[in-house]
UniProtKB/TrEMBL annotation:
Residues 1-20 form the signal peptide. The lineage of its organism: Bacteria, Pseudomonadati, Bacteroidota, Bacteroidia, Marinilabiliales. Transmembrane segments: none annotated. Pfam families: CotH. Keywords: Signal. This is Spore coat protein. It comes from Labilibaculum antarcticum. Coiled coil: none annotated. The keyword Signal applies. InterPro entries: Spore_coat_CotH_CotH2/3/7.
Length: 463
């Protein structure tokens, strides 16, 4: 009998230690949908703080302003080959010659990758190419420094135990290649200036990336890490992040009369509901005959659906920094978010790498905006109104007096120059837009001159 009790006791002790061993190799992630058990023997770097959906957004780590982050991306050679075939099929053969673009309106394929940061791995992370001209022009010129988008749970259906994987709380992030920007700073500085002026805008920081596609790790150069608008910007910079978010692209993005097309008002949230009532109302109101027959009613209706003040604030800042590759010249590079706290569509800028220069094609807009036609009614119709025009002018002055201050910008440019210089100098032919180290140096000096020139230009315009 005594031996029987001893046997049972030993069995219970064994079960207890076995349970403890199981706990040592499993980590539980609580989600709103279900409990996810992550096998930390298979995924040893997984922790709740770094990989789980339950983790707090760690802006201090992900958007560290004092360091250049390093990301290492490893892609299976077959998956890499599929990515290249996808580019070739949609953009034409990589001729290594500029100006051979066929089309850039396509959705690049996702493939899984191993993503490493600070000696920690994230598993089966989705990665794809991204961009319009920044993708097609770079690719067609034979430059391998292309932009990427990351989605940390893109392949969760294939790997259910990694469901809702995050990168310090972030689901998606963008690695922008700083196309057509020899200073490598415009994307970051533009986004920061908008946000400092009180506008919703993505957080950014500098990073370098290394890609191993089966042939060893290759340095791809200096990138700008950009926060995804539909992932965290609307959640952290608005009271309620559950409203409709649109990324217009195409003729409908102009809001010109006769242009509305739901298919060009890409929904980034609430897609299944397919409700475009709010953005259709903005189109209807901006083009309403009330504008010429009853201006007070037109303005009241417009202000009930659209954050007019925020748009004029953006327009002023955008005009000062000469960000020409957006509304007013191009039918893309902005978001509209229906802020449920105000029930108004709010403008969110996007893609600033072409800012801080006179511009291409028609060039950057003048301060007067007199050249803007009814093809861009959100600008031309608002600026035609004396009250709105005065608000815009006031924001021009406020922006250069409080945010776009040449001496402070010069210090910022110098700080960033010192931060990224060694990484810029290390960029390699075929993976860089820099022709030489001096081209980087000169571009930074040009930014410093640009700041004072624009401040002087605003002062002259407002006299």
């Amino acid at each position: 009998m005594k031996s029987k009790y001893l046997y049972l006791l030993a069995l219970l002790i064994g079960i207890t230690f076995a349970c403890r061993d199981d706990e040592a190799i499993e980590e539980t992630t609580e989600t709103s949908e279900e409990e996810v058990i992550v096998d930390t023997e298979t995924y040893p770097d997984w922790t709740d703080a770094t990989h789980s959906k339950s983790a707090e957004l760690d802006y201090a780590t992900v958007f560290n302003q004092n360091e250049v982050l390093r990301f290492d991306i490893k892609i299976d050679s077959d998956d890499w080959s599929d990515m290249q075939s996808d580019l070739s099929s949609n953009l034409g053969g990589n001729s290594g010659r500029p100006g051979q673009v066929t089309t850039s309106d396509f959705d690049p394929i996702w493939v899984p990758c191993s993503f490493n940061f600070n000696d920690t791995e994230w598993y089966h992370v989705g990665v794809r190419y991204k961009g319009n001209s920044s993708l097609s022009s770079a690719y067609q010129s034979g430059n391998k420094k292309l932009s990427f988008k990351l989605d940390f749970d893109e392949f969760e259906d294939d790997y259910p135990s990694l469901k809702n994987q995050r990168f310090y709380g972030f689901k998606q992030l963008n690695l922008n290649n700083n196309f057509d920007d020899l200073s490598l700073m415009r994307e970051k500085v533009g986004a920061d200036l908008f946000r400092e002026f009180g506008l919703a805008s993505s957080q950014t920081t500098f990073c370098v990336i290394y890609v191993d596609n089966g042939s060893g790790s290759q340095y791809y150069g200096v990138y700008t890490l950009v926060e995804e608008v539909d992932d965290t910007v609307i959640d952290t910079q608005f009271t309620d992040g559950s409203g409709n978010l649109y990324k217009p692209d195409g003729d409908a993005a102009s809001f010109a009369s006769g242009s509305f097309d739901e298919s060009e008002m890409e929904k980034k949230t609430n897609e299944d509901e397919a409700d475009y009532t709010d953005v259709k109302s903005l189109y209807t109101i901006i083009n309403s005959s009330d504008r010429t027959s009853d201006i007070a009613q037109w303005k009241s209706n417009l202000e009930n659906i659209f954050n007019v003040d925020g748009f004029l604030k953006w327009l002023a800042a955008n005009t000062v920094i000469q960000n020409w590759d957006t509304y007013g010249n191009m039918t893309h590079n902005y978001y509209l978010y229906n802020d449920l706290n105000t029930n108004k569509l709010t403008w969110i800028p996007w893609d600033n790498n072409e800012a801080f220069q006179a511009g291409k094609l028609q060039g950057a807009l003048s301060f007067s905006l007199n050249e803007v036609s009814s093809s861009w009614p959100l600008i031309s119709y608002l600026i035609d109104d004396e009250e709105y025009k005065q608000i815009y002018d006031d924001y021009l002055l406020q922006f250069v007096n409080e945010v776009f201050i040449p001496s402070e910008l010069s210090d910022t440019y110098t700080t960033y120059y010192n931060l990224i210089k060694d990484y810029a100098y290390a960029e390699e032919s075929g993976y860089s837009f820099l022709g030489s180290n001096s081209s980087f140096d000169s571009a930074v000096e040009t930014l410093k001159s640009h700041a004072q020139e624009r401040k002087d230009a605003v002062t002259s315009y407002l006299k």
